[in-house]
Amino acid sequence: MARRKDHTPEELTELVLGRVLEFLQNEPADQLSLRKLAKMVGYSPGTLINLFGSYSRLILAANARTLDIIARQLVDVMNHTESAEEKLHRFAQAYLSFAMQCPHQWRALFEHHMEEGEELPQWQWSRIERLFEMIEQCLYELNEGSLEADRHEASRVIWAAVHGICALSIDDKLFAQTSVGGDSMINSLLTHYLSSWKRD
Q1: Chain centroid to CA 113
Q2: Tens digit of pLDDT for each residue in 138-150?
Q3: Which of 53, 55, 82, 185 is least crowded, fewest Cβ atoms below 10 Å from its Cβ?
Q4: How many angstroms separate the CA atoms of 184 and 127, rounded?
Q5: Each residue of 147-163: b (16+ CB within 10 Å) or e?
Q6: Residue 180 contacts residue 174 (beta carbons within 8 Å)
Q7: How far is CA 107 from CA 80, 164, 171, in A?
Q8: What is the tally of structural domains in the chain?
Q9: The model's pTM
């Protein structure tokens, strides 16, 4: 078993979170445990708890890395797309693509629950809000007269609908003809929803 001094805290953090994301490439999060992860990185379970505070916080930190990956993809779309409507379409397609390519990593974002009495830390809230702010900015560009509260709600409506399509696509539960897939359903959803949003 490796000793604590074999890695700095920063190096060990990177090692552990890297192993979690590697594991999620092939296995669901519920197949991972603190003991299994400790064995994978060559440290004791107690060392990992001392580093992250709890196993729940460790998984939350791994999920933060996933949100960072998604955010980078959306920023890339922002930087290479002119139209606000096209940005929203490409945002949604990037989200679907990530969910299909990394289903266990994507699901881990939503299957994780904080321990009783714990609140989601600010560093995670900030990541979540950043993603919604990108959507809200696009909605503002499409309808500058819209209210902030309406944009806040609309961003969640869009995400919830796209998220549902992603979840059903991963599980192959769309119950549609082969020509109807998650990508075409997302395009249909946004085309109709945004058409209404621009008229309001």
Answers
A1: 14
A2: 999 999 999 999 9
A3: 82
A4: 28
A5: eeeebeebbeebbebbb
A6: yes
A7: 28, 12, 11
A8: 2
A9: 0.90
